Amino acid sequence: MTRFPAAHPGRPFGDDYSRGRMVPRPAGRARGVAAALTGAARAAEPDDDAYLRGLAPDLSPGAADEAVVRRREAVLSRLQDGWAHRGGQELDVVRNRHGADVFPVVGELLMAPATWEDVQDEARAAGLVRVPLEHPELEGRLVLLRAADARRARRLHGLVSALRSRGHAVSMSYVTPLGGRPIMKPNSGVFGPQVATFDEYVGGGEAHGRGVVVAVVDTGVAAERRSDGWLRDVVRTGDVAGAHGGASNVDPLDAEPHDGYLDVYAGHGTFVAGIVQQVAPGAEIRVLKAVGPGGAGSELDVACALIRAVRDGAHVVNLSLGTQTLFDEPSLPLAAALEVVREIEDERGWQSVLVASAGNYGDDTPTWPAAFGRVLAVGGLTRELRPTTWSSHGSWVDVSAVGEDVLSTYVPGRQNPDFAASAQEFGDDAFARWVGTSFAAPQVSGAIARTMTELRVGGPEAVHALLAAGKPVAGYGHALQILPGA
Fold it and tell me: One Pfam family this chain carries (predicted)?
C-alpha cells in the first residue's frame, strides 16, 4: 500500500507541526488568533522540563516532597467527591499489587451472564442482589450486582479473587479516571494545565482530515464558543441530565463541587479536541461526555459512549482515559462494548479505529481500554521521542507521541490552589500546556484522520501507514513526531 516517505523515520508529516512553522497568520485567515493571550495574567512557561524525566512514578512520601503528596491526595479526594456529586455509590481508593490506585465502586460487582447463571446462589449467600443495569447498550451482556448492606459492601475483593481463580468472568465495578495517575512537579506540586500562548502553524492544512469523523469521549466541551474560531464547529448538545452519562456533552467546568474554581479535570475534553483539530483541521470533531470534570467516569458510561460514537459513524474514536484494575483483569463493560462495536462494523462493512491513552502509571501493567488488542494504545514520549518516566509502557503499547507540555485549547477560569502552588487564571480563548498520555493519544487520532485523506485510505490502512512510518522505541511501540511539545 502507499506509505509515507522513509527519509525521516518517525516524522510522517515532516516539519508541518514544528516550531519553525508556528508563525502568526494574518487576521481573517487564522482559525485562532496568532499569539493570543490566554488570560488576564500571562504567566511564564516553565524554563525546562527536566523534572519530568526523573519523576518517581509512585509519588510515594519517600520519592516526592510533601507538597506533591498533599496535592496528590487532594486530587484523589476530589475524584471521590466528584463521583459522589454525580449521585453514584461510594467510591473506594485501593492500591493494586503494582502500587497503583484503582477506583472500585463500593459494594458493586459485574459479571458475564453465563457466570451469573453458574454462581448466583453463591453471590446471594454473599449478600449480593441483582439490580438493573440501566445501560441499554449493554443489556443482556452484563449483570450488575450490589451488596444488600454496608457491612458486606467492603468484603467483595476476596469473592472476586476466588471466582476469578475458578475461571469466572467477574470484576469490581470500576470508575475510569483520566490518565490513571496525576503527573506533578516534585518541587512545587504543580498539577494540571499551565497558561500558554499559541502561534498557529501555516500551510495548506485546512483539508487535512476533511470528511473524517473523530469522536472524543471525555469530559465534554466548554459551552461557550471561542471568539478565535477554535472548536467553532463542535456541536454542543446542551446541559440536560440523562442516564448513563447524559444527553449533554457540555463540560460544566465548576460543578464538582461548585466553589468558584475550575474542577480538577475541567477542560480536559476541550484540550483533547483542540489537539485533534490542530493535527486534522478539516475533520469533523464530535465530543461525547462520559467523565465528570472531577475526573471520574463509570466504565459503564465510557463503554456506552464508545458504542454510541461508533454507531453514529465515527471513523476514529479517541479515549484519553483508562485504569489499571485490582487483579489486572480486563474491563468487562469495555470488553462487552467491543463486542457490540464488532457487530456494528460487521453489519455496515467498515471498521472504526479506536485510540486510547496508555496511562500515566510509569510501569508495564496493562491499562484498560488501551491494552485491548482491538484498541490502538498510545504512550507518551519526550519531545526528543525518548521514553518518559511517567508513561505506561510495554508490549501492549502500539504507538507513542510527545506527551510533555503539549499545547492546546483550554477554558476560562481560575485553578484551585489545592492543586497548584501558584494557581493560574485562564481568560477567554485560553491556551494551555498539559502533560500526559491523554494528550499523546489525540495527536495519533488526528494523524489517522489526516492520513485517511492524504493517502485516500480507510482507518485501518491509515494506522498501518503510520506504524510503518514510526520509529521503533522499546516498550513504546512506534514513535511518531506530530506536535512538538515544549
Answer: Peptidase_S8
**pLDDT at position 17:** 87
pTM of the model as a whole: 0.88
> What's the pLDDT tens digit per position in 14-29?
888 875 554 433 333 3
In a shared domain, residues 111 and 206? no
**228 and 338 share one domain:** yes
Query: pLDDT digit string (tens) for 285-306?
Result: 999 999 988 888 899 999 999 9
**pLDDT for 36:** 35
With respect to residue 485, please indicate whether it lies within any of the assigned structural domains.
no
**Would 109 be classed as within a structural domain?**
yes
Evaluate whether residue 23 is within a structural domain.
Answer: yes
Q: What's the number of domains the chain is made of?
A: 2
Query: Is 410 in the same domain as 449?
Result: yes
Query: Residue 80: pLDDT above 90?
Result: no
Burial of 474 (0-12, 13-18, 19+ CB in 10 A): exposed
In a domain, residue 93? The reply is no
Q: Looking at residue 136, which CATH number applies to its domain? A: 3.30.70
State the pLDDT confidence band at 2, using cuts at 50, 70 and 90: low
Give the end of a domain, one of 151, 174, 197: 174
End position of a domain, from candidates 147, 174, 201: 174
Active site members: 218, 268, 438
pLDDT score recorded for residue 75: 80
